[in-house]
């Protein structure tokens, strides 16, 4: 029964203490309107009015805070113009890939007999329409497919040995006002358009984690490390690549004279003769079939370049990758490429899909597995079947995870063209001037690449609303509508939590002392309680009207003193 009686007393004590603390809090708090709610001199209607006003302000404040949080959570990154311009001296001149639309030279393939493996490969390379008639009932087509399935030739090897080499296509090269031998600045590269020539491109040992199958030829320059995030090293050698431009304008750009050798055309990748050119990031493999720009024979093409640079502040690293929608170089590693980019990631995804479908990887895709074989002509049917539109959803699952790089460099250009000279008069380029006019108009093209400006402003990704701004916005709203501050939290915690608990502890300690006195000396205990029955608070928590002082009990020569701080009775002389 005693324990049941103690519980209601304890609850009553806690309730009264909380009620008293709440009353003090309402009178002393700085929150708008609560002083009037706790003012006993006002009528119940007046106090109710201020209570309703406070609740309405609280609900409105809560709604505004939710709006601020939603904006902070849904738009963590803002993209603006970079506050500083980037000089063209601090960025590489674009890598330039040039391809002849002629897939193979006629003089190198004319001797192959119909029905041979080489002849079947040429049909595949030149996109014979019969490859699309896989379900045809024609006996000749079925025989071709049977022959194709047993063909073990590699398209990449065949293209390297039978296409126009760079030393025949490139007649003249000039960069930054200095004339170079084209073989010293160009290398061969196998793309989806066949054998091409590339300038200012990273070497394969730096681009890929394993030996590259689609690059040949070493250059007479010293390689330096570069990527869009870290840029060039502080010290650079005299002859290095990827090289940067030394100025703007056509004289400080890159010029090349191209020879199509029209008499060597066997099959074109388009509907006519000419070239495809593409200017791209020095660490990104070009996609010539889809993005290459056509250069016609008998014309001079001028490409005025503009650099488009994307940057990011280090502060956005604290935001999750899915929320900021970009990836830093060290955050995601690829299987084959040393440098992350969205294009490289998507190519690896598609290579993985083709390997799962056909157990091989085509030559134009990254060799993501060291034990994977390069597709042969016999695998062409499987590759074309896997590349159909109905299978696009399977290949796109991986590609959806390929986000853009936080740092990137790309190039845009305006194209201007004019026909080459048809009559005999003096022209600027001596190489072009000495070429026969008939041959010039049927085979030659001149291409110029140059910057329009010496510096460009890129885009900058930054935190839209940082944590400091987020707190400032919330604090401003709560201060405006409720007068709330950090100290208000401390007041609420003290008056509504700390003070009631402290008083409960002090009350229980007083009850414990009372029980000890009753058991040791009933008479002294009763007389002590007579004088001290209301004193059980600690010194810091005494209610108003009760002072903390030493209580004397002196029926004999000695006096007993109760010290509330120590929670026990001590003896002292009178």
Task: Give structural attributes.
574 residues, alpha+beta
Tell me what the structure shows.
The chain has 574 residues and is of the alpha+beta class. The chain contains 20 helices and 20 strands. Strands 1, 4, 5, 10, 13, 14, 15 and 17 form an 8-stranded mixed β-sheet that branches. It has a 5-stranded antiparallel β-sheet with strand order 6-7-3-11-12. A 3-stranded antiparallel β-sheet has the order 18-19-20, with helices on one face. Strand 4 (170-175) and strand 5 form a beta hairpin. Mean pLDDT is 81; it is low at 533-557.
Radius of gyration: 42 Å
- How far apart the termini lie comes to 43 Å
- Number of contiguous helices: 20
Q: Please state the overall shape, judged from the principal axes of the Cα atoms.
A: elongated
In short:
By secondary structure, the chain is an alpha+beta fold. The chain is built from 20 helices and 20 strands.
List the helices and strands and how they pair.
Layout: H1 2-28, H2 34-37, H3 44-74, E1 77-81, E2 86-87, E3 95-100, H4 106-109, H5 117-125, H6 139-149, H7 155-162, H8 166-169, E4 170-175, E5 178-180, H9 182-185, E6 186-191, E7 194-199, H10 204-207, E8 222-223, E9 240-241, E10 254-259, E11 275-280, H11 288-291, E12 293-295, E13 299-312, H12 321-324, H13 342-358, H14 380-386, H15 392-399, E14 408-419, H16 430-433, H17 437-443, E15 444-451, E16 455-456, E17 459-463, H18 467-482, H19 486-520, H20 522-532, E18 551-553, E19 558-563, E20 568-573
Parallel strand pairs: 8-9, 13-15, 13-17
Antiparallel strand pairs: 1-17, 2-16, 3-7, 3-11, 4-5, 4-10, 6-7, 10-15, 11-12, 13-14, 18-19, 19-20
């Amino acid at each position: 029964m005693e324990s049941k009686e103690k519980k209601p007393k304890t609850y009553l004590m806690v309730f009264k203490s909380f009620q008293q603390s709440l009353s003090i809090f309402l009178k002393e708090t700085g929150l708008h309107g609560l002083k009037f709610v706790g003012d006993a001199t006002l009528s119940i209607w007046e106090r109710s009015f201020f209570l309703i006003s406070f609740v309405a302000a609280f609900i409105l404040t809560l709604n505004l805070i939710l709006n601020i949080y939603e904006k902070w959570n849904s738009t963590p990154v803002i993209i603006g113009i970079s506050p500083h311009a980037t000089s063209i001296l601090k960025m590489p001149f674009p890598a330039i890939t040039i391809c002849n639309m002629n897939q193979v030279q006629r003089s190198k393939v004319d001797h192959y007999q119909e029905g041979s493996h080489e002849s079947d490969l040429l049909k595949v390379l030149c996109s014979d329409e019969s490859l699309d008639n896989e379900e045809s009932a024609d006996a000749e087509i079925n025989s071709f497919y049977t022959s194709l399935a047993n063909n073990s030739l590699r398209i990449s090897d065949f293209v390297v040995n039978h296409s126009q080499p760079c030393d025949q296509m490139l007649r003249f090269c000039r960069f930054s006002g200095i004339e170079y031998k084209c073989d010293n600045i160009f290398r061969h590269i196998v793309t989806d358009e066949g054998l091409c020539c590339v300038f200012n491109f990273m070497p394969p040992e730096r681009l890929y984690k394993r030996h590259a199958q689609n690059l040949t030829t070493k250059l007479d320059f010293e390689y330096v490390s570069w990527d869009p995030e870290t840029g060039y090293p502080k010290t650079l050698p005299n002859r290095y690549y990827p090289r940067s431009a030394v100025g703007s304008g056509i004289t400080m750009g890159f010029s090349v004279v191209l020879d199509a050798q029209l008499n060597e055309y066997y099959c074109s990748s388009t509907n006519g003769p000419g070239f495809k050119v593409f200017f791209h990031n020095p660490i990104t493999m070009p996609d010539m079939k889809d993005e290459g720009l056509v250069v016609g024979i008998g014309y001079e093409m001028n490409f005025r370049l503009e650099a488009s640079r994307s940057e990011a502040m280090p502060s956005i690293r604290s935001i999750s990758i899915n929320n900021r929608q970009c990836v830093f170089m060290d955050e995601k590693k690829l299987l084959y490429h040393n440098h992350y980019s969205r294009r490289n990631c998507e190519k690896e995804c598609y290579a993985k899909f083709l390997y799962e479908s056909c157990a091989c990887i085509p030559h134009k895709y990254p060799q993501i597995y060291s034990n994977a074989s390069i597709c042969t002509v016999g695998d062409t049917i499987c590759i074309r079947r896997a590349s159909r539109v109905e299978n696009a959803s399977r290949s796109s699952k991986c590609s959806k995870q390929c986000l853009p790089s936080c740092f990137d460099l790309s190039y845009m250009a305006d194209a201007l063209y004019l026909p080459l000279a048809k009559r005999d008069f003096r022209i600027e380029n001596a190489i072009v001037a000495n070429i026969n006019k008939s041959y010039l108009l049927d085979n030659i093209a001149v291409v110029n690449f140059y910057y329009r400006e010496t510096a460009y402003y890129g885009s900058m990704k930054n935190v839209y609303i940082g944590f400091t701004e987020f707190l400032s916005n919330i604090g401003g709203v709560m201060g405006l509508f409720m007068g709330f501050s950090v100290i208000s939290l401390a007041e609420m915690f003290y008056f509504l939590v700390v003070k009631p608990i402290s008083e409960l502890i002090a009350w229980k300690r007083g009850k414990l002392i009372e029980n000890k006195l009753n058991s040791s000396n009933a008479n002294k205990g009763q007389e002590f309680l007579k004088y001290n029955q209301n004193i059980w608070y600690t010194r810091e928590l005494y209610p108003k009207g009760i002072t903390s002082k030493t209580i004397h009990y002196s029926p004999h020569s000695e006096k007993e003193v109760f010290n509330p701080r120590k929670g026990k009775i001590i003896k002292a002389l009178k």
